[in-house]
Design a protein that fits this description.
The structure holds 2 protein chains of 2 kinds. Chain A is an alpha+beta fold. Chain A folds into 3 domains: 46 residues; 33 residues; 93 residues, no CATH class. Helix content of chain A is 45%, strand content 15%. Chain A is built from 5 helices and 6 strands, in the order H-H-H-E-E-E-H-E-E-E-H. In chain A, strands 2-3-1-4-5-6 form a 6-stranded antiparallel sheet. Chain B has 10 helices and no strands. Chain B folds into 2 domains: 131 residues, no CATH class; 68 residues, Winged helix-like DNA-binding domain superfamily/Winged helix DNA-binding domain (Arc Repressor Mutant, subunit A). By secondary structure, chain B is an all-alpha fold. Classes of the chains: A alpha+beta, B mainly alpha. Chains A and B meet through helix 1 and helix 2 of A and helix 3, helix 4, helix 7, helix 8 and helix 10 of B.
């Protein structure tokens, strides 16, 4: 038992050097500093009457400002949706000789739109309502602008669950022809 | 500073095996309650008392779980003291309090180790020792016991004369004068040799904990 106590005592003396003393002092100081800081926070946690009066105005104002910013962001995002005719970039006339459907991907539809479009892939020089639309381009069209027809069959634009617009055929055969599955 | 009457009434002392055996005393739950309540209130006297009593135990615990990385253990200890003040709450049971302290200390150590790794400092020591120690902390309920085991092993690694001197002083309980007379040197010289031996022992012990 005596040697066990001796080992305890030795362990104490081995550990208790200058570094130990410095660490002991540093941790004590750090603790006290934290205590003081927390007291200051504690005192400040109780606002004065002036603070409360100000807070009554500040909180609703801040909330209103946040709401305004959010609303502005929302409308700005909504306006940025591709309703504006941003798809004019591909405009070029179709070959005068014929309206050509290509077999290349992406699939191409020749559709007649309800009004002249600046078109997606190509327009017929003599009839601006006769246009070539790829499926990809169709995603950029407005519903009302593309109540159109393909090869005499009505087609339109549907919006899928993810908000993407897709060229949709109301007639299954027209769709198959569009996809190249029927002659 | 607001002195606590509770603290004055009951001075808290930790249980056996935590600090110097001479300071040991049976802990009444009420004293622990008073100490921890004082800490929760932000009482400086309570913190002084806590620091006085628990510093060694926490220090040893962190030394053990950090794998003998003294500097890292020191940083973690400081952080532990700060967290203790932030999150102190009353405890009635000694074991519960120690478990809570260990949890705080361990999390502080892990955070410090992460900070060290991020800053790239002491990278050698960290990759070799601290990372596993800080993340897979072994159960060091009584760090003093584990450290004593390392110490006893390292004692055997000292040169024979130094080992005899240390054993004579600490294990056989002989005085400086007796040891000095045996060797035909002054007691001051014995003190110096013992101090050197202790420094060597510390280095050996920390190395042993790392490995």
């Amino acid at each position: 038992m005596k040697s066990l106590d001796g080992l305890d005592s030795l362990l104490d003396d081995v550990l208790h050097d200058e570094q130990w003393s410095a660490l002991r002092a540093a941790t004590h100081t750090a603790g006290l500093r934290e205590l003081t800081a927390r007291k200051r926070i504690g005192q400040n946690a109780w606002p004065s009457a002036h603070h409360l009066r100000r807070a009554r105005w500040v909180t609703p104002l801040a909330a209103a400002a946040v709401l305004l910013i959010l609303a502005r962001l929302f409308f700005w995002t909504a306006q940025s949706e591709p309703h504006a005719p941003q798809w004019l970039v591909h405009t070029r006339p179709l070959p005068a000789a014929q309206l050509v459907t290509t077999a290349d991907a992406p699939p191409v539809a020749i559709v007649r739109t309800s009004r002249p479009l600046g078109v997606v892939v190509a327009t017929h020089p003599s009839d601006p309502t006769l246009v070539v639309v790829t499926q990809h381009s169709a995603t950029q069209l407005n519903d009302e602008e593309l109540l159109a027809s393909f090869d005499g069959a009505p087609c339109g634009v549907m919006t899928d669950c993810r908000g993407r617009k897709k060229l949709t055929f109301f007639d299954a055969e027209a769709k198959k022809r569009f996809m190249g599955e029927l002659p | 500073m607001k002195p606590s009457s509770e603290m004055a009434a009951t001075r808290y002392a930790p249980p056996a095996g935590t600090i110097r055996p001479a300071a040991l005393a049976q802990t009444p739950d009420s004293a622990l309650r008073a100490l921890t309540s004082g800490l929760a209130r932000g009482d400086e006297t309570a913190f002084d008392r806590f620091h006085e009593v628990w510093f060694d135990r926490l220090h040893r615990y962190l030394l053990v779980v950090s794998g003998g990385l003294e500097e890292l253990a020191g940083d973690a200890l400081q952080e532990t003291m700060i967290r203790l003040i932030r999150h102190a709450k009353p405890f009635d049971d000694e074991a519960d309090f120690w478990n809570w302290l260990r949890r705080i200390a361990r999390s502080a150590l892990t955070d410090q180790a992460r900070r060290w790794r991020r800053s790239g400092a002491h990278i050698g020591g960290l990759t070799e020792h601290t990372q596993p120690a800080a993340t897979e902390v072994t159960d060091a309920e009584d760090p003093a016991t584990e450290m004593k085991a390392h110490l006893a092993a390292c004692l055997q690694l000292l040169p024979a004369e130094e080992r005899r001197l240390v054993k004579g002083k600490y294990l056989d309980g002989r005085s400086y004068a007796e040891l000095a007379e045996e060797r035909g040197i002054s007691p001051k010289a014995v003190e110096s040799r013992l101090a050197r031996a202790r420094r060597k022992l510390k280095v050996l012990m920390l190395e042993s904990m790392k490995s």
